[in-house]
Write a structure and sequence with these properties.
This protein has 355 residues and is an alpha/beta fold. The protein has one domain: TIM Barrel (Alpha-Beta Barrel). 39% of the residues lie in helices and 16% in strands. An eight-stranded parallel barrel has the order 3-4-7-8-9-10-12-13, surrounded by six helices. The longest helix is centred in the N-terminal third of the chain and has 17 residues. It is globular. The relative contact order is 0.15.
Length: 355
Amino acid sequence: MYSFLRRLLFQFPTEPVHYFSMNSLHVAAAIPGMKNMLARNFASRTDLNTTVFGLPFRNPVGLAAGFDKNAYWLTELEMIGFGSVEIGTVTPLPQDGNEKPRLFRLPADQALVNRMGFNNEGVKKVSERLARWRGSRPAPVAGQPRMIVGGNIGKNKLTANEDAWKDYETCFRQLFDEVDYFVVNVSSPNTPGLRALQEKDALHKILDHLQTINRQQPHPKPLLLKIAPDLTQTQVDDVIDLAAETALAGLVAANTTISREGLKTAAAIVEAMGAGGLSGAPLRQRSTDLLRYIVTRSAGKIPVIASGGIFTGADALEKFEAGASLVQVWTGFIYEGPYIVRNICNALQPTQGQS
C-alpha cells in the first residue's frame, strides 16, 4: 500500500509534500475515533520498554531531529508508535533557513540530500507549543511509558562561533522544562562554520557551560552530543575523551555526510542538487563503523543513539549488535512509511536497547 502512495508522493517537490503528508495525518487523527483506530493499526510489540540515560523509553526506535523541527506533529508521531522524537534543531531566534529548493530525493540510492539550514520558528514559539502539547495530554497510565521528547539545539546562522555558547545556553534554558533530554548539534553541514565547533576547545566550552547550568537544576537533564560521520579518527577520539570529561549522557552517531562516494544516482544529477548533507542507505555502513569504534574505544561506557541508514529491522539489529542503546530513523521513514516503527520493533528482541 505505502509503496503505491510513495510513488505518488514522489511525483511532487520534496519539502512541500513533507508538510502535506504530516498535515493530512493530523487531519485524519482529529476525526472522532480515528486516532485510536490508527494507533491500534500502527501498534507494535509492547515488551520493548527500555531505560536509557535514566529515561523510560516505550521502545528503542526514535525519530531523528529535522523531521519535526517546530514540534507540530508530536501527537501524530506518538500515534504512529515512536518511542521518542527529537524536535529541532531549534535556535534562539527564528530563521528561514537556506533558499529553496533545499531537500532532494535520490530514489536509486534510497537517500536524501538536504541543506535546510536550521529553519525553525525560534525557541520561544517551540517552547510554548511544547508546553501546550504536554498540557493537553491525557494522564499517564501506570507501567506504560510515554513517548520521550528530545530537544536538539543549535546556533543561529548569524551568530559568530565565538559567541555560539550563548545561543546554546538560550535554547537550553528556554526548553529545559519542556523536553526530556538535550542534544547539542554542532555537526550539521548546512550552517556555515558550524562544524568547526566540533574541535575540542570550542566544544569543551559549550558542553562544560551547559553542564554547569544543568547541575544547578533540581533535576538535571541528560545532555548528548550529535557528531558528523566525516570526523577523523583523532577528532572522534577527542569527542570520546570530551564526553567523559564533561559527563555527557551519550552521543548521537551520526549526522548527515558531505561525502558523495559510491552513489548510484548519476553524478550530473547529484551535482545539480548542490551542497548539503546526504542521509539514508549510503550512510548505513559508515555510521555503523563509527558507532562500533565509539563503543569499543569507550569500553561501552558512553551510550550511543545510532542514526544513519536504518530502514528495516535488520538495519536496526546491525546497530544494536554494534553497541547502540537506541536507534533513530529519518530518511527510512520517508522511504518505508508510517509502519517503519512497527516493522522494526517486531524484528527486535525484548532486551534490545537496554542500557
